[in-house]
Structures are given as structure tokens and as C-alpha cells.
Write a structure and sequence with these properties.
The structure is a single chain. This protein is mainly α. It contains 1 helix and no strands.
């Protein structure tokens, strides 16, 4: 079970931000390479 987003620990927020950044970067690469 993915429990990100539960609780206020800074590390969980950083993990979520890193996941979002990685997703955006992946999309940008797909668009640029399209």
C-alpha cells in the first residue's frame, strides 16, 4: 500500500515532489523526442 500523502513528515513531501519532477521530465523527454 502506498502511504505517501499521509502524515506531515517532510521526507514524504520531498518524495512526492521528486516523483512529480521525474514524471514531468519523462513527459518533456517524450515530447522533445516525439
Amino acid at each position: 500500500m502506498d502511504n505517501r500523502g499521509h502524515g506531515d513528515s517532510p521526507s514524504s513531501r520531498v518524495e512526492a515532489q521528486n516523483d512529480l519532477t521525474a514524471t514531468v521530465s519523462s513527459i518533456e523527454q517524450t515530447v522533445l523526442n516525439g
